[in-house]
């Protein structure tokens, strides 16, 4: 009998813990994305970020590279989208369109009230705060073309919002 009470107490505690967590929900999602240029490649680490829709998100962008990088999130490009068309595609299909976004650090390219990309200087960092609303799979890219084409050298990734 005492064992059954103990098992019941543990089960009740687990249920109440779960219900309490789901009733209040996670209050914030935090992710750090490192931007780097190394060995002829340019990368985001991690190159895949998963967020939950409706839960505040904070993405810390840390540029450990030797050049400026940018963080743009947009609808997956249509098949056949050329590199020359990609920046226009990304700008017109920005994930952040119609979403309230707060950026601390870095510099932001804004069209109207919609953020398109966040630029982070070499050795600097920025924080992007927003609540994801649109679900699906989106592309992350650094679309800078200076002496090198960052995107073509591997600086792309995926954002999944569930």
Explain this structure.
- The protein is α+β, with helices and mostly antiparallel strands and 162 residues long.
- Helix content is 20%, strand content 42%.
- The chain is built from two helices and eleven strands; from the N terminus they run αβββββαββββββ.
- It has helices at 2-24, 83-92, and strands spanning 29-38, 41-45, 48-51, 57-63, 69-75, 101-105, 107-111, 114-120, 125-130, 136-141, 156-161.
- The strands form two sheets. A six-stranded mixed sheet has the order 3-11-10-5-8-7, with helices on one face. A five-stranded mixed sheet has the order 2-1-4-9-6, with no helix packed on it.
- A hairpin with a 2-residue loop joins strand 1 and strand 2 (41-45).
- The chain is globular, with a radius of gyration of 20 Å.
- It starts with a helix and ends with a strand.
- Mean pLDDT is 82; it is low at 1-24.
- Which word captures the global form? globular
Quickly count the helices: 2
What would you call the structural class?
alpha+beta
Helix and strand pattern: HEEEEEHEEEEEE
Main pleated-sheet profile: 6 strands, mixed
* Percentage of residues in helical conformation: 10-25%
Tell how many strands the DSSP assignment holds.
11
Secondary-structure topology with pairs:
Blueprint: H1 2-24, E1 29-38, E2 41-45, E3 48-51, E4 57-63, E5 69-75, H2 83-92, E6 101-105, E7 107-111, E8 114-120, E9 125-130, E10 136-141, E11 156-161
Parallel strand pairs: 1-4, 3-11
Antiparallel strand pairs: 1-2, 4-9, 5-8, 5-10, 6-9, 7-8, 10-11
């Amino acid at each position: 009998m005492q064992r059954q009470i103990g098992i019941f107490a543990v089960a009740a505690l687990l249920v109440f813990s779960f219900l309490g967590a789901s009733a209040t929900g996670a209050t914030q999602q935090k992710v750090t994305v490192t931007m780097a240029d190394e060995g002829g490649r340019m990368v985001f680490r991690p190159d895949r970020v998963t967020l939950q829709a409706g839960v505040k998100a904070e993405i810390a962008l840390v540029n450990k590279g030797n050049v400026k990088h940018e963080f743009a999130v947009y609808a997956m490009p249509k098949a056949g989208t050329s590199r020359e068309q990609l920046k226009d595609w990304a700008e017109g299909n920005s994930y952040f369109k119609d979403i309230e976004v707060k950026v601390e650090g870095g510099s932001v390219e804004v069209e109207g009230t919609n953020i398109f990309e966040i630029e982070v200087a070499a050795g600097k960092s920025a924080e992007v705060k927003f609540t994801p609303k649109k679900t699906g799979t989106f592309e992350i890219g650094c679309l800078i073309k200076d002496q090198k084409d960052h995107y073509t050298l591997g600086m792309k990734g995926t954002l999944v919002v569930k």
